[in-house]
Amino acid sequence: MRDVHTITYAELVERQERDRRAFGRMLLNWRRGNGWTQYTVCSWAEEAGFEAISYGNLSVIEQGKAGELRQKAFWQLWEVNRRIAAREWGNVPDPRIEEKLKPAIPLGDGSCPVWGPVEFWACYCGLRAVPAAFRNTPAPTVNQRKAAELSARWRHQLRSVV
Fold first, then answer.
1. Residue 27 and residue 120: Cα distance in Å, rounded?
2. What percentage of the chain reaches a pLDDT higher than 90?
3. What's the maximum distance between 2 C-alpha atoms anywhere in the chain?
4. What whole-number distance in Å separates Cα of residue 73 and Cα of residue 117?
5. Does the pLDDT of residue 139 top 80, yes or no?
6. Where are the domains of the chain?
7. Which helix or strand (DSSP H or E) is residue 33 part of?
8. Alpha helices, DSSP H only, in 38-128?
9. Most Cβ neighbours (<10 Å): which of 36, 115, 125, 148?
10. pLDDT attached to residue 153
């Protein structure tokens, strides 16, 4: 009989990949929930003078394909999170960036409302659950006008085929 604490290497790798995908989805949901593009944090960091994850690296992390993240990445995520929680935008001359930041919410959970580098790392490793608020990717919304336009296009294409 196999010990319940024994796993194979393949099972370990599978868990690791699953946890990394969940971590990436969480960051994607956090970014989208805050109404940001991939470039928002980088633009903010550049203007305010702090170091942030590059948008290319963020994209790879969000896809769950980043591999081993360096410690620095977790500290950079914390710096963004800390600034959001403190409403500390820094010297941001572009009012459009500041407007995108004002409604932002920090990433955290009930036991730690503002995650630091340790919490980000623990989640990345699968040692801490993704907060419920960031688990599911919300379906994209389409306003009524756009929905009517898309429906009309679809009907037109369907008629041309039939």
1. 10
2. 75
3. 65
4. 8
5. no
6. 9-161
7. helix 9-33
8. 40-48, 55-62, 71-86, 95-101, 117-124
9. 115
10. 86
Q: How far apart are CA 133 and CA 21, in angstroms?
A: 16
Retrieve residue 144's tokens.
């009524």
Tokens 């360096």 sit on residue: 70
- How far from the centroid of its chain's Cα atoms is residue 27's Cα? 1
pLDDT in tens, 77-105: 999 999 999 999 999 999 999 999 999 99
Residue 45 · residue 51 · CB < 8 Å = yes
Which residues, in sequence order, are CB contacts of 47 under 8 Å at separation 6+? 90, 91, 92, 93, 94, 97
Q: Is the pLDDT of residue 40 over 80?
A: yes
User: Is the entire prediction scored with pTM above 0.85?
Assistant: no
Q: In this structure, what token pair is assigned to residue 139?
A: 């379906």
Return the H-helix or E-strand segment holding 13: helix 9-33
